[in-house]
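ok here's NADH-ubiquinone oxidoreductase chain 4:
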Amino acid sequence: MLKFLCFLIFLTPLCIFPGSWWLICSLLFLISFVYMFSFPYFFCWSGLGYIFGCDLISYGLILLSLWICVLMVLASESIFRSSYFSGFFLFVVIALTLMLYCTFSSIGLLSFYVFFEGSLIPTFFLILGWGYQPERVQAGVYLLFYTLLASLPLLVGILFVYNSLGSLCLFMLCGNGSLVSVLFYVCMVFAFLVSMPMFMVHLWLPSAHVEAPVSGSMILAGVLLKLGGYGLLRVFPVLYKFGFKFGVVWISLSLVGGLCVSLFCMRQTDLKSLIAYSSVAHMSMVIGGIMTLSYWGVCSSFALMVAHGLCSSGLFCLSNITYERFGSRSLLINSGLINLMPSMAMWWFLLSACNMAAPPSLNLLGEIGLLSSLIAWSWCLMFVLVFLSFFSAAYTLYLYSYSQHGFIYSGLYSCSLGHVREFLLLFLHWFPLNLVILSADIAVFWV
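and the structure:
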């Protein structure tokens, strides 16, 4: 574990050299590939120390973090072309990668909490430093206050665990149901539900996405939303006793909320806002799957988290490519793009198809498993899930058809059809998303 940590730390001095963008991008690709081949073949912990360790769920999310961080740098070429604090931008990206790596590999609850909160600071800098509108300050404050205030009860719960057991190691917590009370359960769970986010505590997410630069949107949708799901998967061995009692509350709230958010998506005219609300709808199914505490629910939630990380990040890249050319994210202006950028329309179609869980994407595997687990938990959920699946496809088709078809806005001038860098960026989102389903046993048989 330490060799990858040192690799990332030693990348930071390169940020001060002008023109080191391609070098850092190449080295981040290198570390991603090296980490990919350090797969823990046996389904147990590897690289275990006093602070860090890695099992299969950590491995998948660390690899996703490294991959998305590389693509963040690749997508932010406009920052380096304009030399707008590009060195500091690279430093923030590497710091964020370090924080995420440490979060997913922590085996102690307190170190997990510190890195979990620490990952918000570089994200806050990304939104404030390279956001587009003056409202980015308000969006950054929303992000910090929602997540930090919800996490304070989690800190109290962690200290209570230490006071009761004398240890914060995740191995010591498994099967220790004696210290659980209703208040402790709510303290431990609520912070992760806000991070995912669950309906009714999701207001920080659309504003953060709309005001963030493309790199901020990519890491926010790709990895930071998965911190909540990862936290729930880690603490539920302790909380299973109350999880069975209160699961019905969270499942009902998340699925009905996901249905409401799907209807919101049908009314959006802003590209980024629509993709952000679709993230809330997808995460509602992940919350429902985890709260069933069933084998298929938990495994399929992990598969959908990884799939959604790649798919939503790719959609944010596409919206940014459009925004850089036309200066607007409105669907009223960005219509008829298939006439202006026909080669980019293919990528819109491929990533939109993945977003609605079309085969052979990993989204299909995750959603089929989640549908099975939720209907097995209660057949009454079938009615909500039918509408949730229908509207998920409906708003994705709405996004694709309104942006690609129709009349061209009369105020548009000629623009470039796309650069090789952009096609590479979109390919590196789409290809792993459809390749991982070939080794589906890794995604769904890790428990």
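+1. The radius of gyration is 21 Å.
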